[in-house]
C-alpha cells in the first residue's frame, strides 16, 4: 500500500511540474484625457485619443496578456476657467468611439453645471452601461485605445476652460508559465 501511495504521489507531483500554472494578476490604471476649450460661440466639440498603453507602463508591458478590463469609475475636473460666475454648461456629452469613428456610444452626460464653483474639484461622472462596455472593449483591443469626444453648449460666450476626464480602470492579465 505504501508503494502505491508513493507512486501515486510521484505521479501527481510530476503532473503538476509538467502542466505549468497560470498566473492571474489585477492592476489598476488611471487614464486621463484633458481638453482645452477656447471657443467664441456657445457650443463646442473636441475629440482626442485615450490610449491606455501610453498612460501606464504596466498596461503596455502586459497588454498582450490582458484578459479583462473594468472601468470602475470616472470623474471630471475643471482645471482652469476664464468666465463669469454664472457661466455654465447647459448640456454636455462625453462620447466614446472606436479609432475609425464608425461606432459611437454615449459615455456620460452633464447638465446645468456652473463652472466657477467647481474649478479644481473632481466631480463624479455617471457612466452609461453601453458606453462603459464599449470603452472596455476598445481598451482590450490591439490598439488599447479609443476616441473621446466632449461636446457641450453653454449659456455664455466665449467658452474658455480646461477639463480633465479621469477613469479608474482595473485590468487583469493571465499568463501561463510552462
Summarize the structure.
Helices cover 22% and strands 55% of the residues. Strands 1-8-3-6 form a four-stranded antiparallel sheet. The protein has a four-stranded antiparallel sheet with strand order 2-7-4-5.
Radius of gyration: 23 Å
Instruction: Note the run of SSEs as H and E.
Output: HEEHHEEEEHEE
Annotation, overall tally of beta strands: 8
Runs in which pLDDT lies below 50 for 5 or more consecutive residues are 1-18
Q: Give the class from helix and strand content and strand pairing.
A: alpha+beta
Mean pLDDT: 90
Biggest sheet: strands side by side, in what order?
Answer: 1-8-3-6
User: Roughly what fraction of the amino acids lie in strands?
Assistant: over 45%
Helix content: 10-25%
The shape, in one word, is: elongated
Count the helices. How many? 4
Main sheet specs: 4 strands, antiparallel
Distance between the termini: 33 Å
